[in-house]
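[User]
Um, tokens okay?
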Amino acid sequence: MALTGLKTGHIGLNVTDVDRSRDFYQRVFGFEVLSDGAGPGRRFVFLGRDGQLLLTLWQQSDGAFPTALPGLHHLSFQVESVDEVRAAEAVLRELSTTFAYDGVVPHGEGADSGGIFFTDPDGIRLEIYAPSGAGGSAAPTAGAPTCGFF
């Protein structure tokens, strides 16, 4: 069976502090708040752009994202140019974000695509990349995709 028109809808993340995460995702990605809610045990925010829902944040967890357990590996966001990647990097540095690698790196040896790899306030691994413009430097993980080993 083939599902016609299949594409990713929105992404939902569990976070420890919905206000902190909302601010982070708005500053880094320029998302707008589409909806938010608060009630006993029900804190959430819907983020998107141009009225389209892209990311939901649910305050339903504590601790940090456990990268050693099965589940989400990382979220990747594509932008049009490496200049946009560098602009996001500058915002992330202002926020004292933890990076996996220093600066923009290629997706693999000889690849022209690449980006930045970092974590959000709850330790969720994220990537912002451009399809070209990141070549010219060595990939941080020889013989394997950069995004798979951070």
